[in-house]
């Protein structure tokens, strides 16, 4: 088996810490000669996400880490930086971000440690498809010369970290097929959301999907769908003048009487009573 430790990288070039305010982000597409080092690390957090090719990250202790497509490394302040293109791959396309994070991000930065001061998470295609636009949004924002570019960049980076967090084994990790289903439910509440249809979205058999969904989400698919429909209905009753029958159709109920019964069972009052109480 090929040993990453034996791969002869190009000589490392010592580079200074970047100078920036709260966040700087970007994208590199590097060849085989790319290998940089910061012997004392930096005072910020550094995120490296491989888009294509591969990189080698050499921590101060332990074996080198290979960062293939979908892999992200999070390097803590004060940790030696020694990374570059994997010579076997010959190319490394990566998105990066240096950030001084707000205190509210503490939990989002608690990644599984692959080496001292270095966290590592590898994403599947479903979640990576959501992370990459957020990281690219952060990179574009740091080049803005109008508005509040740092805040835009922080928003993009925080969105990416929230998606990484769904795959963090230190917390409640959600199967990415279920993430696809949850997003589908939210976007299609007025449509067919039967067990069979949701299983098709997840590309699973109905029985396997039902078991996985109940285990990870904490409720059966039908109960989850109904809860989402009735919560949206409550907001629509509060915020719009639409008739109850129209709101029922907007959240997937063709029979307004059945909708009213299910609404009362969840909220304790009829739709009309709910609207009157909220507006009072």
What does this molecule look like?
This protein has a six-stranded antiparallel sheet, with helices on one face. By secondary structure, it is α+β, with helices and mostly antiparallel strands. The protein is elongated, with a radius of gyration of 24 Å. The termini are far apart. The mean pLDDT is 92. The protein is built from nine helices and eleven strands. Helix 3 crosses helix 4 and helix 6 crosses helix 9. Helix content is 40%, strand content 20%.
List its traits.
alpha+beta, six-stranded antiparallel sheet, 9 helices
The SS-based structural class is alpha+beta
Order of helices and strands: EEEEEEEEEEEHHHHHHHHH
- State the separation between the terminal residues, measured CA to CA: 71 Å
Low-confidence segments? none
Extended strand count: 11
Helix content: 40-55%
Instruction: Tell me the radius of gyration.
Output: 24 Å
Strand line-up of the largest beta sheet: 2-9-4-7-11-10
State the major sheet.
Answer: 6 strands, antiparallel
Fraction in beta strands: 15-25%
Mean pLDDT: 92
Q: How many H/I helices? A: 9
- The global form is elongated
